[in-house]
């Protein structure tokens, strides 16, 4: 009898025989990664000015662009709630901004279903450019022009970091789809 | 390639309805967010309990992180130390010789100081610190400037207590959880500290600018007497901060004051000391007097 090639039974996500994707992993990992990214304020970085990119927001954009069907439209409420607990912003700011982001992304996706790397990056840059000043606006700080010039480095850093975040999310996506559940 | 989209509804009634519900729920979420935001801007203390609970739970991670921050710095410093050990040794010996002389002088001064204080019948108003802690995190991506410390009401920390480091004032406690507290840093735009020049009695307010510097606003307007390099310390006005704690150094002059750099950069701080409120009796008395007046009316 002719033997099968060993590789025929496997692909990048593991064995194809007797294994299936776990729903807990494939739906839990995106949520978990964003929730963990919200804990950035507990990182051992103490900055004199806002400089660290809003990682939870960047991850949210990346996941939503890569896999539009993972998150329900209302996901901004729980994710924003968690982010507000740690971010130092007044409570409710991330709930509002994340929810609006989900709605806006959905509308944009309906209009431009065909996308590429540059389109994604441009969309993300647009969202970040709106998100950061909006967050300053509702932060409850005494507003001045200085506040908005202060977030410029953070803005550039966030836009520059976005493709890297997107790659990390793509990596997490392959982990997410690993066949770890045994059938039968 | 168009991304997979299970939400494309087409003429499927059920899918259309699901999509509609999604939008309604997302809109509701945004509305709830907006309401909570208005409440927390109007009454900032509403959600303190919720937030302190969350940071209490996650504090161990921050604690490990802060140890990591300090230790990685030590690690790199000890490597760097090998490179210029010889010249550093010579320099240190020279410094030690000078320091011995200075120490003797300082002892003499200390004795004289004690004697003079005894003559004047002054008690030295030293404060016993409430607690010591590490800074375990900061609001590094928000426009507000908060830090988290790993002590809370279990250690006797209360709202309003000043937080200092060996180099100077850092901020004051804003929210207290059982094992963590949130600190309003001096550089937050809502923070204001009464200060005076260390050498004389030029008084000013130090306002945060959120970019790591402070704006000093002089109380007596007129000719600006400040110069670059002037050191400002807390004046003790207001009763919250004890007088004489270093705050900032003037770096740039302005019409009605100056821009000053913070002396104790929170980023370079390992351990902070939480001190009791300086004149708590006076502050309490002031509060009660006010409320009694209101009830009388």
Structure commentary:
The complex is a heterodimer of chains A (184) and B (297). Chain A is mainly α and 184 residues long. Chain A is built from 7 helices and 4 strands, in the order E-E-E-H-H-H-H-H-H-H-E. In chain A, helix 1 runs antiparallel to helix 7, helix 2 packs across helix 7 and helix 4 runs antiparallel to helix 5. The radius of gyration of chain A is 19 Å and the shape is elongated. The model of chain A has no long low-confidence stretch (mean pLDDT 88). The longest helix of chain B has 36 residues. Chain B is globular, with a radius of gyration of 26 Å. With 297 residues, chain B is of the alpha+beta class. In chain B, the strands form 2 sheets. In chain B, strands 1-2-5-4-3-12 form a 6-stranded antiparallel barrel. Chain B has a 6-stranded antiparallel β-barrel with strand order 6-7-8-11-10-9. At the A-B interface, helix 2, helix 3, helix 4 and helix 6 of A face helix 1, helix 2, strand 1 and strand 2 of B.
Short account of what is shown:
The complex is a heterodimer of chains A (184) and B (297). Chain A is mostly helical and 184 residues long.
Give keywords.
heterodimer, A: 184 residues, mainly alpha, two-stranded antiparallel ribbon, two-stranded antiparallel sheet, 7 helices, 60% helix, elongated, B: 297 residues, alpha+beta, 6-stranded antiparallel barrel, 6-stranded antiparallel beta barrel, 12 strands, globular
Biggest sheet layout of chain A: 2 strands, antiparallel
H/E series of chain B = HHHEEEEEEEEEEEEH
Q: Name the overall outline of chain B.
A: globular
Whole-number total of structural domains of chain A: 1
Strand content of chain A: 5-15%
Coarse morphology of chain A: elongated
Sheet bearing the most strands of chain B, described?
6 strands, antiparallel, barrel
Model regions low in confidence, pLDDT < 50 over at least 5 residues of chain A: none
Pick out the low-confidence regions of chain B.
none
Number of helices of chain A: 7
- Helix and strand element order of chain A: EEEHHHHHHHE
């Amino acid at each position: 009898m002719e033997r099968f090639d060993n590789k025929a039974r496997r692909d990048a996500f593991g064995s194809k025989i007797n294994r299936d994707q776990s729903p807990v992993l494939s739906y839990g990992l995106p949520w978990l990664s964003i929730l963990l990214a919200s804990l950035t304020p507990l990182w051992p970085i103490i900055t004199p000015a806002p400089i660290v990119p809003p990682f939870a927001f960047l991850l949210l954009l990346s996941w939503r662009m890569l896999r539009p069907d993972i998150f329900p439209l209302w996901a901004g409420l729980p994710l924003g709630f968690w982010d507000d607990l740690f971010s130092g912003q007044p409570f409710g700011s991330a709930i509002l901004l994340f929810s609006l982001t989900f709605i806006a992304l959905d509308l944009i996706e309906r209009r431009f279903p065909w996308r590429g790397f540059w389109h994604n990056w441009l969309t993300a840059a647009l969202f970040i450019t709106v998100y950061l000043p909006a967050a300053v606006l509702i932060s409850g700080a005494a507003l001045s022009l200085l506040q908005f010039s202060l977030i410029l480095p953070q803005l550039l850093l966030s836009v520059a970091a976005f493709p890297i975040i997107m790659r990390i999310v793509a990596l997490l996506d392959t982990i997410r789809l690993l066949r770890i559940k045994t059938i039968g | 390639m168009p991304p997979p989209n299970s939400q494309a509804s087409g003429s499927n009634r059920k899918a259309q309805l699901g999509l509609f519900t999604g939008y309604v729920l997302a809109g509701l979420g945004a509305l709830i967010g907006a309401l909570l935001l208005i409440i927390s801007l109007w009454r900032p203390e509403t959600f303190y309990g919720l937030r302190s609970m969350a940071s209490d739970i996650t504090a161990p991670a921050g604690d490990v992180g802060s140890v990591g921050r300090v230790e990685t710095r030590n690690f790199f410093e000890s490597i760097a130390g090998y490179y210029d050990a010889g010249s550093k040794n010579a320099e240190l010996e020279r410094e030690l010789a000078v320091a011995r002389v200075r120490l003797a002088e300082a002892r003499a001064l200390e004795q004289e100081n004690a004697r003079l204080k005894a003559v004047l019948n002054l008690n030295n108003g030293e404060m016993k610190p409430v607690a010591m802690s590490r800074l375990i995190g900061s609001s590094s991506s928000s426009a507000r400037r908060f830090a988290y410390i790993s002590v809370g009401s279990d250690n006797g920390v209360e709202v309003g207590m000043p937080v200092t480091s060996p180099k100077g004032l850092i901020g004051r406690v804003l929210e207290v959880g059982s094992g963590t507290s949130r600190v309003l840093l001096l550089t937050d735009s809502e923070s204001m500290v009464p200060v005076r020049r260390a050498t004389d009695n030029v008084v000013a307010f130090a306002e945060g600018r959120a970019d790591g510097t402070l704006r000093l606003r002089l109380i007596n307007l007129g000719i600006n007497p400040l110069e670059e390099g002037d050191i400002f310390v807390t004046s003790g006005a207001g009763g919250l901060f004890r007088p004489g704690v270093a705050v900032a150094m003037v770096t740039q002059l302005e019409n009605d004051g100056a821009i000053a750099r913070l002396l104790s950069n929170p980023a370079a701080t390992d351990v902070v000391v939480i001190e009791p409120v300086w004149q708590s009796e006076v502050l309490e008395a002031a509060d009660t007097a006010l409320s009694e007046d209101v009830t009388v009316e």
